[in-house]
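Service request form, structural biology core

Requester: graduate student, group of Dr. S.
Request type: structure prediction, single chain
Budget code: on file
Notes: please return the result as C-alpha cells.

Sequence provided:
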Amino acid sequence: MASAAINTGDRSAPSGGGQRADASAWLAVAAGTLGAMMATLDISIVNSALPTIQGEIGASGTEGTWIATAYLVAEIVIIPMAAWLERLLGLRTFLLLAAGLFTGFSVLCGLSTTLSMMIIGRVGQGFTGGAMIPTAQTIIAQRLPPAQQPIGISAFGITAILGPVLGPLIGGWLTENISWHYAFFLNVPICAILVTLLLVGLPHEKAKLQLLGQADWIGILGLALGLGGLTVFLEEGQREQWFSSELIRIMFVVMLVGFACIAWGQIHARRPIIKLSLLLDRQFGSVALMGVILGMVLYGTSFAIPQFLAALADYNALQSGKVVLLSGIPSLFMMAIVPLLLKTVDIRIAVGGGLIIMALASLIDSNLTAQSVGHDFTTGQLMRGVGQILTMLFLSQAVVRSVPAVDAGDASGLFNAIRNLGGSFALAGISILQEQRVWFHSRRMEETLNANRGAVQDYVNGMEQSFGQAGSGIALLAQQVQQEALVMTYNDIFWIMGVGTLAVLPLVLFLKPLPKGAGPAMVH
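Core staff response, request fulfilled:
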C-alpha cells in the first residue's frame, strides 16, 4: 500500500546506506503510522457495534451497510489524489488539515442521531482518513535512509493489517462498556497526539497553489459522481426494485456521467487523476483484479462475521470483535519475517498460496448452522490471516515493480483505490444477497412444509402444547424458517467469496518474479 512521494529538499531520505535517521525523522514516521492506524481502524470500528448504532439512529439492517460503505467510497476518491495534494499544500500542512478535519467528522459521527447525519460524517472521515493512509508510506520513503526503511515498512504493514481487525474489537469494547459514541470520540485524543508529532517531526513547506490549475478537475468530478452513483445504485437497487425506481434511474445516469468524465480526463488531461491505462498492462491488470478480491474478502468478512454472530448467536459487540481479531494474530507474527519472505519466496508461490488459503477459509465458513458460535470461525479466521498477509504483502510489491518507475505512484494509488472498491462491492453485495437469498431460501423451505402433512401438524401442535398458547406453533415455525434462511444466506456469502478467490488464482501466472534478493520496494 504505497503511494507516490516527491523527494524535495531537506525532507528527502539520506542516500547513503550507512546513514541513520535522526529523532525528528522517527517522530515523523510515528506520526504517519499513527495516522494510518487511525484511518484503517475507523474503516471497521463500526462493524461490531452496527446493530446497536442502527437501533439508536433508526436504520434498518440493509441501510446500516451505508455506515461502512460511505467511508470506503470516499477513500477510493481521495487516495489517487493524495500525491497531488501533498505537492499542492506541502506534506505537513496537508496532514495537519486532514487530521483536523478527520477529528471534526469523527465528532459529527459520535453525535449522530439520524442515518443521514451519520453518513455525512462517515463520508468526511473517509475523505480525510484516506489521505493519511498513503502519506504514511511517503514519510517512510522520504525520511528514512534505505537501510532503515524495512523497519518503517514493517511498522506500516502492521497498522495496515491490524487496523481493520482491531476496529471491531475496540468498537465492541467501547460499545459494551461505555457507549458506541466513543468509538468516534476516541479519535480526539489520538489526533491531538498526531498533530503534536507532525509539528515536531515534519518541516513546513510552502504551498504550490499554481498546481490548482493543472489538476484533472473533470476526472476528480467523475470519480465522485461515478463511484458515488455506482454505490447508491448497488446498495439501493434491490430495495427500490431497480429501474422501476426514479432514484435508481437517476443514480444510473449519474454513474454514467461520472464514468464519462473519468474517460474524458484519461484522454485530455495532462496528468489524469487516476491513470487507468495502467490496467492494460497484463501484469498490473492481473494484480488489480486480485486486489479487488483481496478487498472483498478483507472488508467483507470483517463485516459479515459480526452481523452473523449478532443475529444468530446473540453476541454483543465486544464478543464479535474478539472473533474478528483472530485473523490479525498470524498477520502480526508474519510481519516480523517480511524481509526474509521477500528475498526467499517466489511471488507466484506466495500469492497463489495466499489466495488458496483465503479461499479455503471462506469455504470452511460456508458450513455454518443455526447453532454456530464464535469458536466455529476460529480455523477460518486464522487461515484467513495467513492468506491475507501473504497476498497483500507480495501484491503490494508487484504493484511497484510491474510498471515503469515513473508510473509507480499512480499504480500504487490505483491499486489502493481498486482494493477499497472491492470492499465496497462486497458490502453492497452482502446487502443485496441478504434481501434476495433470505427470501429465496425461506420460500423454498415453506414449499416443503405442507400444512396437511401429519408431521407438520404434529410439530405445530407440540409447540403449542409446550408454550401453552394457541397459534404459537405457527409463529415459532415461521421464526425457525427465517432463521435457517438467514444461515443459508451467510453460507452463500462465504461460498461466493471462496469461489471468487479461486477464480482469480490463474492470474498468478502473469506475475513476474521479484529481483533476486530484493528488499521491500518503496515509491519515491
